[in-house]
Give the backbone structure.
Amino acid sequence: MENREPANSSQNIKQSIISEELIAEGKWVKLEKTTYMDPTGKTRTWETVKRTTRKGQSADGVSVIPVLQRTLHYECIVLVKQFRPPMGGYCLEFPAGLIDENESPEAAALRELEEETGYKGDVAECSPAVGMDPGLSNCTTHIVTVTINGDDAENVRPKPKPDALVSHCSCFYKHSVFKLANIHIKCRGEEFDSSSES
């Protein structure tokens, strides 16, 4: 039988980082020029953003999927709306934030949820650390699912922390795509009434 080389022998070349050079550094992030070897063995460079705040945690932060459960109501997911300067406008997001030093992802998730929405809940599941935008940054997050007992007195009229600078809303699981589309239109018009979506 005739021996043939693999169609793409470059797949055997191990890609690796050769060097990292600091370009600029701010309080929260830094920009580096990353030199690496591509699958063909060629040396290339990449502009990489990294957080300056990581201190040995398994991830930089947490993203919380809050599930609001109330008697005689559909289960809802809770979202927050806040102005994001890089986007030049308002964004609808899951509650999220950085993990403090010596803080577990679960504890960070419950803290961020209460700070941004006023809700208190229980952790149902925590994912491994996952990349947020690996083509740009090494930033990672844990995705934490939290259940909220909406019948509990402390969750009937939740209020975010005064310095949270966000407002929250909830949308049904059922037909949630259409709900989110409607909320997105409201955000673009900078009109937002969280009570209308609860």
Summary: The CA atoms of residues 185 and 191 lie 9 Å apart. The radius of gyration is 22 Å.
